Amino acid sequence: MISIYVQILLIIIFWNSDCQIIPRIEECGLSCSQGIHCKSKPSSGIFNSFCHDAPASLSSMVLKSMKISTVMKCVQGSQCSLHLNIKGTLSLDENIRGLEICSLSLDTQQSQCTNVRFARKKSKMLNGKKVQVQFNCIEVKVAQHIYVTMKTVPNYCEVKLSQEYYVEDCRNSDVGKYISDCSAGKFDYNVDRARKIISVNVSNFLQDQDYYVRLCHKWFTCEDAGAFAVIKGKESLKSVSLKYSQLLPCLCIEGWLAIPDARRIQLCPFENDTKVLWDNIVYNPVTQTLAWEPACPVLVMVNLCRLTKSNNHCEDIQNSSKNSSEKVKYSRVDTHPRLCMKFTTKQGSWVKCPFAHGEFPAWKMRTAAAAEQIQVYFTSQTKAQFSVLVCNRTQLASCESVGTHHSVSVGWRTDVDYSVPLQICDIHCDFCGQTYGDGNPAKAMTHRMKSVHSLH
Fold this sequence. Notes:
single chain, mainly beta, five-stranded mixed sheet, five-stranded antiparallel sheet, 3 helices, disordered C terminus
């Protein structure tokens, strides 16, 4: 009996999530509880963007909560559009004149803001009372990724609510039925990670028309990520296979009817797979520049950190933080194996240590023999001290010293021509006149040089 009950419960939960009903509204507007008279007007969001310290009497919890949902506004029962329904709870205070509600599309970076003002006299009388504000006039698109903020007017620092929200896509029964963007098709897909293929099945489009499907990388527009495929309207098979190179969070499936000015629909199923974004780190040993460039648009804070030996914790390096959705660059960077980059988003933090496995050389040495001198050339990307001696290689892994140590300092990107006097004269001719690069002594040398490199 217990197992039967669990199965029934799971089925009910699954059914409810698939068939979520989107409420309808006749008109969008603003409402406030507690009998408070309030009105709204559009705002650019610029004048209230800078915050200042709140009065000592104002609690940082004056904004209690914010809830976001989707509502549908329909004209004559058919032409429907989607709107955000934003509810916020505020404790009235004489220092607060109103609220500013803003939505930012993380797909297009476009924002919409509105100011909500309260009647001054009545709000003072109800000082400390909770009032619920509801606003549902921000129009959104299918499957849009939205960032919503609610701030006080005036804008007091630390008194703010924010939340990310995903608008329902065409798989929702109400959206798929009543929103015109979804009449251009509906996607079901399957990913074959081994073969790097996405199989796309298309339904809910005009069956006598051809249909185009492609993969694209979504920035401000969706840029091609391969050739598009065509589904013939007369064909019974309505599926295509599309190859991809990398599963990026901005990789989207886009489809449209093969008619002029056809609406396009997009499905971006990998939006939360951000881990791959942090691999694109490049180091230039000549300019000592460490850079990272995102393969997809992402709001991220980047900073350098130092990996500790004890617990693998990465300690932040002061004054290295950078907020950017584009390229991040650091100059004059030493190639230390514990120097790392930390990436922080709303989903968490990731640490990448580009020098941990020695991919980037910190210094180079080359040698040459002339007359009774062995010339040693050092090129170092970091300030370093080198110790040089002449030795006689007795075995493959050992070298018996036949001279004295000689030291030389190398500065930033400095070439040093350092001559070591020969203590012996039985140099083989295989060595005479040859030059060896990248710090690799020649295998044919009877006498070779050791170099010991130490960082300051």
